[in-house]
Amino acid sequence: MTPHKYFIVTATAPVNIAVIKYWGKRDEVLILPLNDSVSFTLSQDQLCATTTACISPAFTNDAFWLNGKEESLENPRIQNCLKEIRRRAKESCSSCGSEDDITSWPVHICSANNFPTAAGLASSAAGYAAMVVAVAEVYGVSGGDLSVAARQGSGSACRSVLGGIVRWYKGEQLDGSDSVARQVAPPDHFGELHAILCVASGRRKKTGSTEGMRRCVKTSLVMNMRLTSTVDARTKNIVKAIAEKDWSSFCDLTMSDSQEMHAACLTASPPVVYMTDTSHAVVELVHEYNRVVVKEGQPQLKICYTFDAGPNACLFVPAAAVGQVMSLLLKVFPPSDHCTLDTYLRGLPCPTPQLIP
Ligand code: DP6
């Protein structure tokens, strides 16, 4: 028996959390957004996706496993990512035309998240980013902008191929060639910052982002206002706040943008409801905490929240405030016996925390 050749690469990519939301597409196939967005990529050792890609002439077809379960490869998003990477591999291929033309070898891809999939925790962003990096490397694609390939899997994924604070430019070209992500600032730009994820539910969301944004673009007046007059100005302002290391303005703009996205959702028809009573209780807690720290003359301890397409809050908290904020959260939302880390990781429902009056 002749041994078969194979190449294998494993890559990880972290979740990114948008502070200026990508919400609305100008092209649903190429996944091109209607506005620029800005995000923080969490550090590699936190919530992340790990993907292994293996190519071999012994494989008869491409195959894909997500969290241990084989998934259909008919998904056009996965197909588009693979097509884009194989196209680039052929462009820079040294083995093409020879017996060892690796660009024609099928690929097997295994991906796993270390957190619940599709619970509004940007799992697709980390997943597609890790996949694109692993598949590109296994086919020998070096250099080039991988954000363009990741974007074709899931829009927000293009920001997860870079670290720190990242801006995804919506671009103007019809083919999406200028719709790329770029780093705006390194991870430690605002000093040591923590992201506290307040998981109100680890369940799969009711309305996926694609459908949620589509409905907002078609029917919401708030969305119309966002796209015609507010979001571009807010993006400009947050980029300025980042350049000036103005943490307080960064926090205010982050919270406004989250509120605006969810206001657009609520004013869509039928409404798209992601936030729950628990989410709103977290919002109230953050505003109350900020009122006190600002009154005490410590705006550098300010914190902010942002909500993606789900009920879970992500809080950005300066290191010096983490102890205080954590004890406040635990006091207001006491951990329930039924909601352990294990319950959450397995995506089971946790009882709604009760607010202590
Ligand atoms: C609320 O990137 O999941 O998290 O491109 O349709 O896959 P598709 O959408 P996706 O949407 C993310 C929306 C968001 C905001 C953001 O991350 O910018």
Automatic annotation (TrEMBL):
It comes from the Eukaryota. GO terms for cellular component: cytosol. It catalyses: (R)-5-diphosphomevalonate + ATP = isopentenyl diphosphate + ADP + phosphate + CO2. Residues 196-357 form the Mvd1 C-terminal domain. The keyword Transmembrane helix does not apply. GO terms for biological process: cholesterol biosynthetic process; isopentenyl diphosphate biosynthetic process, mevalonate pathway. Keywords: ATP-binding, Cholesterol biosynthesis, Cholesterol metabolism, Lipid biosynthesis, Lipid metabolism, Lyase, Nucleotide-binding, Steroid biosynthesis, Steroid metabolism, Sterol biosynthesis, Sterol metabolism. Pathway: Steroid biosynthesis; cholesterol biosynthesis. Its EC number is 4.1.1.33. GO terms for molecular function: ATP binding; diphosphomevalonate decarboxylase activity. Residues 13-181 form the Diphosphomevalonate decarboxylase-like N-terminal domain. Belongs to the diphosphomevalonate decarboxylase family. Catalyzes the ATP dependent decarboxylation of (R)-5-diphosphomevalonate to form isopentenyl diphosphate (IPP). Functions in the mevalonate (MVA) pathway leading to isopentenyl diphosphate (IPP), a key precursor for the biosynthesis of isoprenoids and sterol synthesis. This is Diphosphomevalonate decarboxylase. It comes from Hyalella azteca. The gene is LOC108669398. The chain holds residues 1 to 357 of 441 of the full protein.
